[in-house]
Specification:
alpha/beta, six-stranded mixed sheet, five-stranded mixed sheet, 10 helices, 15 strands, LysR family transcriptional regulator
Length: 303
């Protein structure tokens, strides 16, 4: 009975910490794979036990009270200490084992991480993978992530990081489309072609297509009859013959290999060096973390 009470208290603190960090019962429930009502009930029991109100609730917001902010900081520290104890225990093992929690955006997760998982699991059968895909930047500390793969410039932080191999951004079309329309030889030739473009979900802005012309990098926004808000939809529409689209080489590689996409304007493609693996210093000596980072770096060097 005593163990059950302790477990319920810890569950309440975890729910409270996640809701306080994410600002939403729904987001906290999603990250913990439980229902929003379970989060709400856990926090209500915690408030009743402590005799204080932790959140100011409205129909649109969830804000920590003064008492809630103080407890939230203490709870986060408690959970960080617990994570550190777990990492110390893991470091005592030479063989990778346990659950490895990885976070990435959807395109990176599907095209960079997922293809590596069969090899990693075969090499390290005692490791269980928990892969979380999200367009938002996930807090490694607050959500107990071991490794995050991020694209773009990294903000200054106390996280450790390693750059992965560069990739290209270029144009592609389906073989069917190219039987109906001549292949462009210069970015200016796109004016006479149908194109498929991307609208960013977080800003609503249309993707500006970059090209390397001589020593300069230029950007154009083609007049597109089809605009979608997911890069996977760009590839699917282009492969179906909707026109020319621009995507990253790591997303297009499998389609090109199957003969469903053809690279275009390759002399004008741009190269990017902004995919990084990041992890917290407390994971530095975790055998599973080290093993997965090594596999990613080795795979990047071979690609």
């Amino acid at each position: 009975m005593k163990e059950q009470i302790i477990f319920e208290r810890l569950t309440g603190l975890i729910a409270f910490a996640r809701a306080g960090s994410l600002g939403s019962f729904t987001a906290a429930a999603r990250s913990l794979a439980v229902s929003p009502s379970a989060i709400s009930k856990s926090i209500q029991r915690l408030e009743q036990r402590l005799g204080i109100t932790l959140f100011t609730r409205t129909t649109r917001s969830l804000v920590l009270t003064a008492e809630g902010r103080e407890l939230h900081e203490r709870t986060l520290q408690l959970l960080r200490d617990a994570e550190e104890l777990e990492q110390v225990a893991m470091r005592s093992r030479e063989e990778p084992a346990g659950t490895l929690r990885i976070a990435a955006s959807f395109p990176i997760g599907v095209h960079v991480i997922a293809p590596l998982l069969p090899q990693f699991c075969a090499l390290h059968p005692k490791v269980t993978i928990d892969l979380k895909l999200s367009d938002r930047v996930i807090s490694i500390v607050d959500e107990s992530i071991d490794i995050a793969i991020r694209i773009g410039d990294l903000a200054d932080s106390n996280l450790l990081s390693r750059r992965l191999s560069p990739y290209q951004i270029g144009c592609y079309a389906s073989p069917d489309y190219l039987t109906r329309c001549p292949e462009p030889e210069h970015p200016n030739d796109l004016i006479g072609h149908k194109t498929v473009n991307l609208r960013y979900q977080n800003t609503g802005q249309i993707f500006r297509w970059p090209f390397r012309v001589g020593e300069r990098e230029i950007e154009i926004v083609p007049s597109s009859a089809v605009i979608v808000d997911a890069s996977e939809a760009v590839i699917a529409a282009v492969a179906a013959g909707a026109g020319i689209g621009m995507v990253s080489s790591f997303m297009a590689a499998s389609w090109v290999k199957r003969g469903e996409l053809v690279p275009l304007l390759t002399d004008f493609s741009v190269e990017r060096h902004n995919i990084s693996a990041v992890w917290h210093a407390s994971r530095r000596s975790n055998p599973a973390v080290r093993a997965f980072i090594d596999l990613m770096l080795n795979s990047s060097e071979r690609s």
